[in-house]
Amino acid sequence: MVDQTLLIGRTLAFEGCPFDRPIGEAALFNEYGAVLVKGDKIAAVGNAADLKQDNPRARVHDCGRRLITAGLIDAHAHYPQTAIIASWGARLIDWLEGFAFREEARLK
């Protein structure tokens, strides 16, 4: 059986692009929501009571009133630098001068 964990808390998810519709339609906030994780994948997001009932064997981790949302850890990118992501540089300035500044200059 696949390991199952149910994270319970306040959930925030987005359906579709929030720039294409009013934010109230794109943002899905649930005061008593849950995220079901099976193995290492998100299997479901929804109401905590429903997911608890549907997955009685899932290990429950109650996050209280904490907000559960998609991980946005360093989720930004500089578009002109996408072609050189993971290029080598001993120091930041070496990487900037050797790769980043040259790549950005190409897009002038």
Helical run tally: 3
Mean pLDDT: 86
| Strand-residue proportion | 35-45%
Helix content: 10-25%
Number of strands: 4
Rg, please?
20 Å
Uncertain spans, ≥5 residues at pLDDT below 50?
A: none
Secondary structure class reads alpha+beta
Strand arrangement, major sheet: 3-2-1-4
First-to-last CA distance? 55 Å
The helix/strand series, from N terminus to C terminus, equals EHEEHEH
Large-scale geometry: elongated
Largest β-sheet summary: 4 strands, mixed
Chart the SSEs and their pairings.
Layout: E1 4-14, H1 23-26, E2 27-38, E3 41-47, H2 48-54, E4 59-69, H3 92-106
Parallel strand pairs: 1-4
Antiparallel strand pairs: 1-2, 2-3
What report would you give on this structure?
This protein is α+β, with helices and mostly antiparallel strands and 108 residues long. The protein is built from 3 helices and 4 strands; from the N terminus they run E-H-E-E-H-E-H. The protein has helices at residues 23-26, 48-54, 92-106; strands at 4-14, 27-38, 41-47, 59-69. A 4-stranded mixed sheet has the order 3-2-1-4. The longest helix is centred in the C-terminal third of the chain and has 15 residues, at 92-106. The protein starts with a strand and ends with a helix. 10% of the residues are buried.
